[in-house]
Amino acid sequence: MHPVGLAIIGLGRWANVLAGVYERSDNVRVITGFSRTREKREAFARRHGCACEESLDAVLARSDVEAVAVITPNDQHADAIERAARAGKHVYVEKPIAVSIAHANRIDAVIRETGVTFLCGHSARRLGGVRQMKRMIDRGEIGDVSMVEAVFSNERGLELEEGDWRGDPAKAPGGPLIQLGVHQTDNLEFLLGPVARVTSVGKRMYTRVRNVTVSQTLLEFQSGQSAYLGANWVAPGVFTINVYGTKANLFYSLDFSWWSRSDVTDAHSILRKRAFTQMDDDPDHRLLCDTDVEFPPTDHLRDEIEEFALAIRSGGETEVGTRTATRSLAVALAAVKSSAERRAVEIQEILGE
Fold this sequence. Notes:
This protein is α/β, with parallel strands linked by helices. The chain folds into two domains: about 5-125 and about 300-320, Rossmann fold; about 125-300 and about 330-350, Dihydrodipicolinate Reductase, domain 2 (2-Layer Sandwich), CATH 3.30.360. The chain has helices spanning about 15-20, 40-50, 55-60, 75-85, 100-115, 130-140, 175-190, 300-315, 320-340, 345-350, and strands at about 5-10, 30-35, 65-70, 90-95, 120, 145-155, 195-205, 215-220, 225-230, 240-245, 250-255, 270-280, 280-290, 345. The strands form two sheets. Strands 13-12-11-10-6-9-8-7-14 form a nine-stranded mixed β-sheet. Strands 2-1-3-4-5 form a five-stranded parallel β-sheet, with helices on both faces.
């Protein structure tokens, strides 16, 4: 199909990662970009061989820009998306969808009003191992799920200086919970369905900024199942999901140092199944055995932008629309509120706000 002309709004580190991914796709073409900082604009244009504009209005005025990828700080998502949608541009936004439910509702309203295609970048649900766990759960291969453990960490909280938006509790509530853990809140609802309530503890540890850097959250699902979510900004990269079933357990681990190289991320991850096996020579003795589970590889960052482009061309739906993305945000914000108020918080309480 004819590639979708794309503009990238916000030209920080992650925007450069995504632009490199998009250059491997035949379905999108980066036309231009915008940042308020001239040095970032110039560096991005040199690195990716494209134009860069001096204002968002200039980006939105270009007829060859069909869609925008919003990679700005969380609290700036709603304004950029509203302006882009009203200019008739389709919208991809990096997770989380917004900084608050009020902002998420603004985004939902303008997307429904204008009818443009929308996708939120919860790319972790597209990892090959996560997809395989979903298939195995749905097929009943591990029995009934009783519990899930999910952890996402990196050490970037140790690098934060005063003035960085990630260190501001108003702009990044919950710190690693809103930046990392929200990937796992989406994964957990993808695997087990809607979360009903959460209980959480967050702490500020080993940092020079005011924000939380370590959090532990217990989640109860509408189905009655439960999960643990750890989000950590002061430990080397960890991305794990462990699923416990009545027939077998699944253990998934991803080498975070390959997260940005989405073409080979799956090659640096492991999924193992642990189940009982009967001893041939002793019918009364069973052994727990681990076996590696193979899964079809994916390219989690390229796959999501290509789905976005295909939905633009076909008029179809995307996997993570405004409602799904808002629920993931609500679970994270409920955990932030639970930690602050030292009580269990219902997800519906947050959505009602």
